[in-house]
Amino acid sequence: MKKILIAFCLALVFTQNQAQEVALIPQPEKLTLGTGNFSISPKTKIVLAGSGLEQSAKFLNDYFQTFFGFKLAIQKSGDFKNNIVLNYEKMEYPIPGAYNLHINKEGVHIGGDNATGTFYGVQTLIQLLPVVKSNNLVVPAVEIEDRPRFGYRGLMLDVGRHFFPLDYVKKFIDFVAMHKMNTMQLHLTEDQGWRIEIKKYPKLTSVGAYRNGTILGHHPGTGNDNTRYGGFYTQQEIKEMVKYAADRFVTIIPEIEMPGHASAAIAAYPQLSCFPDSSTKHPAKVTWAGSEQGKQVQQAWGIYPDVFAPTEYTFQFLQDVLDEILPLFPSKYIHIGGDECPKDAWKKSAFCQQLIKDKNLKDEHGLQSYFIQRMEKYLNSKGRQIIGWDEILEGGLAPNAAVMSWRGEKGGIAAAKEKHQVIMTPTGWAYFDYSQTKKEDSLTIGGYLTVQKVYSYEPLPKELAADEVKYVMGAQANLWTEYIGNPRKLEYMLFPRLSAMSEVLWSPKASKDWNSFEKRLQTQFKRYDFWNWNHSNAVFDPAAKAVEKL
Ligand code: ACM
User: Fold this and answer.
1) Do 107 and 199 belong to one domain?
2) What is the distance, to the nearest Å, from the Cα of residue 169 to the centroid of all Cα atoms in its chain?
3) 317 lines ligand 1 (CB under 6 A)
4) CATH number, domain at 107?
5) Most buried residue, 196, 395, 489, 532, by CB count within 10 Å?
6) Does 431 sit in the ligand 1 pocket, CB within 6 Å?
7) Contact between residue 173 and residue 165 where contact means Cβ atoms under 8 Å apart
8) What is the mean pLDDT of residues 115-137?
9) Mutation test of ligand 1: which of 192, 257, 304, 389 has the most ligand atoms closer than 8 Å to its C-beta?
């Protein structure tokens, strides 16, 4: 009897040891460990107990196939016992994205408040699976009740400076979804490239999507690679991208920059400039590739003074562009940029000065406000809302605009006080193009943003009163790509900082605990490795830590 008992205990310990330790990111609102495990094998079935959950089942099954080499049968009805049941569940505090996850030795049951919630329950289940290939996937018994803290959980990708093809953008969307984030802003137009097919203006891509070279090294560079560079998404590809994102409950917000960062559009259609006949300028220290005659797509980073002229030609152009953008992107919000628009050309232009007088505007900032408000009116008439970078506050905010606060939190605070929706994305916590250590192996734009600092971020500023904080929809991390030209580098810059931002945006403020997060990050790194997602190791690297102290 004693021997049997010992064998039983050993077997228990052995099977328990097989289960993945519970180290979830983002940390759920409520988590209770149960006793025992459930084993998922190729014989387990996914039972869909509610309608509209097919995408979650498919995501989970694709995950099993990709990482464990088998798929499960998906059934509309079936035994709840010994299977994975995807369902809906009534919540005490209903909120889109909330879910409950129950695992015991009789199976897995996921109940979402809505289909999004069930999808996030699937994401949590994925984090409970082993991080080695097996066909006996032991998951620990748990009871989880979980829901997001913020409704807007964003990540921006700049495809203007460097272009990432559709297949990789799909992987990027998986990064977003698997961190329980729900919005991807796609920065589609830049001085260095226009990245989306617009049928009415074919030169936007035949001319504007390519530059004749790219600077080498840090701006203004040590030379030029003299290599034509570019790319763009066809409208068909965009449709595929938007559907792929929607299947993962990710909304893509397109950004069409105006009135600044317009060099690529102007290279394609010079009439968009205040001075169509003058050639494109660049800083004297930039080594240029190819022709310097006429309008050119920029080859170095930075801010350029040749911006959209506020003419009827430009407004018609932008409306035509948006007429093709809107059917592709069903998002409520359209990002119109609005940042970093030098006023040099508008100051020199007789047309702009006359317009300022005719419209009774105060100055060029008033003219920018007029520009944005006109575009807002157009987009509102099509049932959409605009988002702009915080410069759109200057000269007067458009009546219904949401503000993305990037130059610190000042803009966001001012906008919330004016009762405008706000998304926080301050450089000091949310710019993932900044260095993660003081000794990066490869070039970055500069700055310094550790994973600890990202984790410390609190999106609701103390300066806002209780009836003002409600305007803060959430926050967003931004991945500008001046110095990010390939997927491995992109992932290195993103991870693990995205894990930290996901917890800031999802988990209750009261549960914030760096020591707990750092411990869970060790398991997250095993997942990143298992998924073949590159990441920075700086947070666990004694050498990097030593440099921090210098
Ligand atoms: C920005 O970083 N220019 C929004």
Assistant:
1) no
2) 11
3) no
4) 3.30.379.10
5) 196
6) no
7) no
8) 97
9) 389
H/E segment holding residue 10: helix 2-18
Structurally, the chain folds into a number of domains equal to: 2
Distance 258 CA to ligand 1 centre (A): 13
Given its phi and psi angles, is residue 324 left (phi above 0), alpha (psi -120 to 50 degrees) or beta? alpha
Residue 389 Cβ inside 6 Å of ligand 1? The answer reads yes
Predicted confidence (pLDDT) at residue 538 exceeds the cutoff of 80: yes
Mean pLDDT of 411-435: 98
| Residue 10 pLDDT > 60 | no
* 288 belongs to a structural domain: yes
N- to C-terminal Cα distance for the chain?
Answer: 63
| CB of 237 sitting under 6 A from ligand 1 | no
d(CA 455, CA 445): 21
pTM of structure: 0.95
| pLDDT given at position 287 | 98
Domain containing residue 134: 20-146
Residue 173, phi then psi, degrees to nearest 5: -65, -35
Q: Residue 482's domain is classified under what CATH number?
A: 3.20.20.80
DSSP conformation class of 393: G
Residues 343 and 490 in one domain: yes
Quick one: 158 and 127 in the same domain?
Answer: no
| Same domain (yes/no): 242, 353 | yes
Q: Is residue 500 part of a domain?
A: yes
Residues 291, 410: one domain? yes
Together in a domain, 160 and 126: no
Domain termination residue (choose one: 146, 166, 198): 146
Closest CA to 40 of 125, 142, 117: 125
484 found inside a domain: yes
* Residue spans of beta strands (DSSP E) within 344-442: 385-389, 402-405, 422-424
**What phi and psi values does residue 435 have, to the nearest 5 degrees?**
-65, 150
Pocket test for ligand 1, best of 253, 339, 445 (most atoms within 8 A of CB): 339
Q: Name which of 7-16, 126-135, 217-226, 349-358 the model is least confident about.
A: 7-16
> 535: which 2 tokens?
């990441």
- 76 and 209 both lie in a single domain: no
CA 196/CA 217 separation, integer angstroms:
27
Residues 142 and 159 in one domain: no
Any ligand 1 atom below 6 A from CB of 406? yes
